[in-house]
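hiii so um. not sure if this is the right channel but i have a protein structure encoded as tokens and i wanna go backwards to a sequence. like what aa goes where. can anyone help
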């Protein structure tokens, strides 16, 4: 005898899992508009869509794909910027550049800091706190690896002579600007800084206490970034920025441009950087490595490196090669 009769609901076959036909077709989102991510905070994204500041979340089809400050995105939903409104990011357009770092040198996970930047500005104080050349070296390595133009911004030149530090980096051909504090904490030397930033998308990095937030407030008066202080005992600054933020440069500059202020860094892991990527940032030296044996890292310890042969033949500047190898060694230096 059958367990169920035709009148029992259990008689009818229940829908089975995975019986719904799957499709690879996805919505085209033809009504999506373009925007740029200005900051990220705990899964919520602040966008600039036209003249509107819009809050958004990431659409589920994007999965685990990260969205970072500087990303150009396509958005659907309410993009009016009204209080309580929430849009949805449905696509991240291809990035032109990506600035990465790892937490430590043995960390296999790369973390994307910002995207679509054109210039990396390494901000360092000449005193109070003291410069940290090895951290500067690491930031420069990250810039060369990401194909960003580097720029050294030396602050507080009223406390120390910038030439001491500049002599270390002049052979690398890295441009620099120098600022100093005037009366009533006024920042002097901003005109040259503005010339370097105009028309660029510049990422500002530096360890805490170097005056990065003060510089941002001087360049973009509406930024209102919190300014910290340097601990008199440890000589280190206190973190005042908690996330990267994209800020438009004032319209009266004429050439447009953006700056991305990032939180103060105390480490800059470079596990993702390969020697062959770094040498490409120095075309004159890269040409001399064509005779290197396979697998040559171009370090000072390599027995048959083409850079050493070029120095012996008088074809390479020994100071420039030494400076390049210092950057190369910065990938594995843990004390910085």
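sure thing!! here u go:
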């Amino acid at each position: 005898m059958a367990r169920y009769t035709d009148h029992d609901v259990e008689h009818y076959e229940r829908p089975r899992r995975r019986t719904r036909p799957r499709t690879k077709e996805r919505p085209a989102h033809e009504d999506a508009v373009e925007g740029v991510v200005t900051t990220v905070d705990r899964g919520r994204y602040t966008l600039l869509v036209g003249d509107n500041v819009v809050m958004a979340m990431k659409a589920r089809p994007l999965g685990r794909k990260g969205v970072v400050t500087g990303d150009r995105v396509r958005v659907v939903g309410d993009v009016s910027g009204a209080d309580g409104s929430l849009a949805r990011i449905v696509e991240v357009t291809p990035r032109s550049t990506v600035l990465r770092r790892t937490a430590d040198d043995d960390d296999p996970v790369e973390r994307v800091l910002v995207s679509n930047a054109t210039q990396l500005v390494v901000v360092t104080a000449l005193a109070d706190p003291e410069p940290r050349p090895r951290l500067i070296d690491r930031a420069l390595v990250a810039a060369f690896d990401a194909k960003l133009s580097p720029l050294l911004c030396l602050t507080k030149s009223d406390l120390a002579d910038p030439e001491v530090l500049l002599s270390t980096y002049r052979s690398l051909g890295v441009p620099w600007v120098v600022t100093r504090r005037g009366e009533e904490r006024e920042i002097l030397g901003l005109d040259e800084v503005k010339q370097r930033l105009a028309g660029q998308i510049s990422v500002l990095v530096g360890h805490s206490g170097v005056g990065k937030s003060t510089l941002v407030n001087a360049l973009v008066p509406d930024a209102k970034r919190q300014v910290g202080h340097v601990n008199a005992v440890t000589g280190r600054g206190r973190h005042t920025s908690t996330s990267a933020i994209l800020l438009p440069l004032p319209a009266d500059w004429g050439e447009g441009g953006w700056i991305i202020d990032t939180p103060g860094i105390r480490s800059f892991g470079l596990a993702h950087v390969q020697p062959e990527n770094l040498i490409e940032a120095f075309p004159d030296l890269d040409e001399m490595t064509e005779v290197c044996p396979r697998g040559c890292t171009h370090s000072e310890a390599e027995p048959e490196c083409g850079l050493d042969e070029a120095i012996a033949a008088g074809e390479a500047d020994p100071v420039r090669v030494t400076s390049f190898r210092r950057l190369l060694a910065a990938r594995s230096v843990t004390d910085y």
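oh and Residues 103-261 form a domain with the Rossmann fold fold (CATH 3.40.50.300).
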